[in-house]
Amino acid sequence: MENIKNYDIAILGAGPAGLTAGLYAGRGGLKAAIIEKMMPGGLVANTERIDNYPGFPEGISGYELAQRMEQQARKFGAEILSAQAESVSVENKYQLIKLSDGSTVKSRALIIATGAFPKTLGVPGEREFLGKGVSYCAVCDGAFFRNQPVAVLGGGDSAVQEAIYLAALTSKVTVIHRRDALRAADSIQKVAFANDKIEFAWSRDILAIEGSGQVSGVRVMDKQTLKEEIIPAAGVFIYVGYKPNSDLVKGIVRTDEQGYIITDDKMATSVPGIFACGDVRQKLVRQISGAVGDAATAAIAAQQYMEFND
């Protein structure tokens, strides 16, 4: 006999967006299940220090912030199911989520808060120095490298925009790109080229990120001369793209070319009863504060949806 668990609302993902959605759903009197295959908190739990989240002027570790969010979600009755969601389907206005433990979660509304993950280079030192100089978010971590040299790896809009942002904080920014020209929009390039604190290392292959306990530089090879060099950097910011965790609902809800879920201003997707929030959603800025705001909207909109679709 199939094991079906019934909930008012199911939430995929227990990062800041998922936990906030669970908090608001539970506080609104809904029976909510947050489904997460790993520990609650998502990528935030691996962030050493967060100093741009409102309410924490002294900063807070990502792990502690995630713990507090989890505690608050549980306080209002949200259940956290430790399992991997294997499939999602819609039947007669209900969402069915099959889990890796063999059970099925049946809900009247679904919030997708599965986030996105940065694409990695896969070079030596990248994983070892994560949180010790390697970052995928300049807005999150740039302030830790005030008046120090940093490197930005990439040549698209995000990479160049973040280089401009970092130039206001650091002593020098070296943009390392594997091509001989940037892919960023012309308007962004003009701003970067006019900034005397930004330098460019063209046609370079990244060989390794080096250091001893903390990042000290990036080993690169000039693709034309084949000579190797180390570019000094206390911080290395990697921008080779993000991939949304939307595979479970591809073909169910509408997504853009990159796989980000398209929503309206109420976080509603193209399928009635299914909402999306946080980094898995098509949006301009991917920050914790934005994810939390999205989630509050999604949970309230989901509750209103259920009230008018009993």
Give the arrangement of secondary structure elements.
Blueprint: E1 4-12, H1 16-27, E2 32-36, H2 62-75, E3 79-82, E4 85-91, E5 94-99, E6 104-112, E7 116-118, E8 134-135, H3 138-141, E9 149-153, H4 157-167, E10 172-176, H5 186-193, E11 198-201, E12 204-211, E13 215-222, E14 228-232, E15 235-238, E16 242-244, E17 274-276, H6 288-308
Helix pairs in contact: 1-2, 1-6, 4-5
In short:
By secondary structure, the protein is α/β, with parallel strands linked by helices. Strand 13 (215-222) and strand 14 form a beta hairpin. 43% of the residues are buried.
Sheet bearing the most strands, described? 7 strands, mixed
Q: Average the pLDDT over all residues and give the rounded result.
A: 92
Supply the helix-strand structural class.
alpha/beta
What is the CATH topology classification name of the largest domain? FAD/NAD(P)-binding domain
Note poorly predicted spans. Answer: none
Order of helices and strands: EHEHEEEEEEHEHEHEEEEEEEH
**Rough outline:** elongated
DSSP helical segment count = 6
